[in-house]
Amino acid sequence: MSGAELVEGPRDYEATLKAARARAESALREAGISFSVEEGKGFVDLVVDVDSIVKAAEALKNAGFTHVVSVTAVDYPKKKSIKVAYHVTSYLDPEIVGGIVGLAVYLPREAPEMPSLSGVWVSAEFMEREVYEFFGVTFKGHPDLRPLLLIPELAEKRPLRKDFVVREESIYEGVPERVRRG
């Protein structure tokens, strides 16, 4: 199979994830990057220090993880931190196609800032903008860090953080009082 053909057909996800994880861990070790592993059901996040994130991303890309599937964040108000995770895979490498590995970092909640990885993976650019507007994470070096989906006034409120208060809408709003009482 040439590198340009897409892999098709049924796959054993557990075996693919195991191969992807082994390759990612090996790439980080070979690059001299310290990491910890957070396992979940059907996924694994390799957590690095913010100072190592660019080098770690480059190591994963060189190991065949050429595409960012998603960039997401999780707000931990009690821990005063925000976790940012890049979920990466390959579309072409038959050993790891479909095996998604997370590259993650924990940032301080009060001033979450990290280098942009859009210079490593172009596919991260718009997803970093979403994390910026919904969680307030600043990606240094991002080519166009502005809200993607929300108006700037709403983005400033960081609507996906756990302390964001959603104003409950009244089902009677705009309905005359005489109609409400029946």
What is the mean pLDDT?
Answer: 89
CATH architecture: 2-Layer Sandwich
Structural class: alpha/beta
Indicate how many domains the architecture comprises.
Answer: 1
DSSP strand count: 7
Beta-strand percent range = 15-25%
Structural shape: globular
Q: Ends: how far apart? A: 72 Å
- Superfamily (CATH H level) name: NADH:ubiquinone oxidoreductase Nqo5 subunit
Share of helical residues: 25-40%
Going across the biggest sheet, name each strand in turn. Answer: 1-2-5-4-3
What would you note in describing this structure?
It is built from five helices and seven strands. The protein has helices at 13-30, 53-62, 125-135, 152-155, 177-180, and strands at 36-40, 43-47, 67-76, 81-89, 101-108, 113-115, 138-140. The strands form two sheets. It has a five-stranded mixed sheet with strand order 1-2-5-4-3. Strands 6-7 form a two-stranded parallel sheet. Strand 3 (67-76) and strand 4 (81-89) form a beta hairpin. Helix 1 (13-30) crosses helix 2. The protein is globular and about 65 Å long. The termini are far apart.
In terms of topology, how is this protein built?
Elements: H1 13-30, E1 36-40, E2 43-47, H2 53-62, E3 67-76, E4 81-89, E5 101-108, E6 113-115, H3 125-135, E7 138-140, H4 152-155, H5 177-180
Parallel strand pairs: 2-5, 6-7
Antiparallel strand pairs: 1-2, 3-4, 4-5
Helix pairs in contact: 1-2
